[in-house]
């Protein structure tokens, strides 16, 4: 595999890894908001939460469309994180095979 392909795989792996980190931060902040630990009346906090929702919602929406309703529980972040981890593993596997 060429250096260009290896570089593109590295960039894709970093992007997926960064998205996983953003989703974990969004999950933690959603719990903190649900348990009234974070004050959402603060404009900075509200803007940060809005930014996190804008990034993560396009990934959650397709999963929510086919998952059944579990009441107040939303399992779509967990499903998306599992898929992203599988994708990251595939990218790392392709990079490892390129080195052989």
UniProtKB/TrEMBL annotation:
<keyword id="KW-0812">Transmembrane</keyword>
<feature type="transmembrane region" description="Helical">
    <location>
        <begin position="75"/>
        <end position="94"/>
    </location>
</feature>
<dbReference type="GO" id="GO:0016020">
    <property type="term" value="C:membrane"/>
</dbReference>
<feature type="transmembrane region" description="Helical">
    <location>
        <begin position="7"/>
        <end position="33"/>
    </location>
</feature>
<keyword id="KW-0472">Membrane</keyword>
<protein>
    <submittedName>
        <fullName>YggT family protein</fullName>
    </submittedName>
</protein>
<dbReference type="Pfam" id="PF02325">
    <property type="entry name" value="CCB3_YggT"/>
</dbReference>
<dbReference type="InterPro" id="IPR003425">
    <property type="entry name" value="CCB3/YggT"/>
</dbReference>
<keyword id="KW-1133">Transmembrane helix</keyword>
């Amino acid at each position: 595999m060429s250096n260009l392909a290896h570089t593109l795989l590295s960039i894709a792996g970093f992007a997926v890894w960064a998205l996983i980190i953003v989703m974990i931060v969004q999950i933690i902040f959603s719990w903190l908001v649900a348990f009234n630990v974070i004050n959402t009346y603060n404009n900075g906090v509200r803007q940060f939460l809005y930014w996190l929702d804008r990034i993560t919602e396009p990934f959650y929406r397709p999963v929510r469309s086919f998952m059944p309703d579990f009441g107040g529980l939303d399992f779509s972040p967990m499903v998306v994180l599992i898929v992203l981890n599988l994708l990251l593993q595939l990218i790392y596997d392709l990079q490892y095979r390129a080195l052989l």
